[in-house]
Amino acid sequence: AQRVTQPEKLLSVFKGAPVELKCNYSYSGSPELFWYVQYSRQRLQLLLRHISRESIKGFTADLNKGETSFHLKKPFAQEEDSAMYYCALNTNAGKSTFGDGTTLTVKP
Amino acid sequence: EAEVAQSPRYKITEKSQAVAFWCDPISGHATLYWYRQILGQGPELLVQFQDESVVDDSQLPKDRFSAERLKGVDSTLKIQPAELGDSAMYLCASSLAKGLAGMSYNEQFFGPGTRLTVL
């Protein structure tokens, strides 16, 4: 069965510092990986997906199949990045599994 | 902008009572998901529909939970009887599902959730 692990429940950085939110997965097939974000009092929404290889709000994530990781990175964190971040995996059959999330706090 | 709708937003019930949640996905979205999210954890998939068919309900406690999407549009999740451990946020999401070759339309759009408290 597939599994998504986000080892850090809480992550706190200062504004302007680099930030990396870790995501590791286990899945025997070819996964589809996503990062979702939930800002305070808002609904869960997509931040980015590995297939697009895009940068959203300064965030990037690279799928490393050798290390089975999909870490989320931003070189200079902003206060508005404070939120809950979830890594998610879709299997070939479309089944979705989420990690338990990391709460990011960016301090001024 | 189209959004996933859920109702009610909050529900308080006593154990052994029946509760029902409703979800209206974004128009045209073939795939509908119901998740349960316990405080401090990520969303756990309960059931996934492709149109009106269940494609995954392996984590749905079928002795007390049921879900339907009769016309392949809106969906209802029911719990009967509710137990104390069912207290959680129940999230509904929808996606367009896989489209053109090489493209992924599996981005999920989430509703605001229903907060269930069982007393």
Largest interface: A-B, 24 and 26 residues
Rg measurement of chain A, Å? 13 Å
Largest sheet of chain B: 7 strands, mixed
Order of helices and strands of chain A: EEEEEEEEEEE
Termini of chain A, distance in Å?
41 Å
Straight-line distance between termini of chain B: 37 Å
Q: Mean pLDDT of chain A, as a whole number?
A: 93
Instruction: Kindly report the average pLDDT value of chain B.
Output: 91
Number of strands of chain B: 11
**Helix-and-strand structural type of chain B:** mainly beta
Structural class, from secondary structure content of chain A? mainly beta
Please, how many helices of chain B?
0
| Low-pLDDT residue spans of chain A | none
Helix content of chain A: under 10%
What is the string of helix and strand elements of chain B? Answer: EEEEEEEEEEE
Sum up the overall morphology of chain A in one term: globular
What can you tell me about this protein's structure?
The complex is a heterodimer of chains A (108) and B (119). By secondary structure, chain A is mainly β. In chain A, 0% of the residues lie in helices and 44% in strands. Chain A has no helices and eleven strands. Chain A starts with a strand and ends with a strand. The mean pLDDT of chain A is 93. Chain B has 119 residues and is mainly β. Helices cover 0% and strands 46% of the residues of chain B. Chain B contains no helices and eleven strands. In chain B, the strands form two sheets. In chain B, strands 2, 4, 5, 6, 9, 10 and 11 form a seven-stranded mixed beta sheet that branches. Chain B is globular and about 35 Å long. About 4% of the residues of chain B have low confidence. At the A-B interface, β5, β6, β9 and β10 of A face β4, β5 and β10 of B.
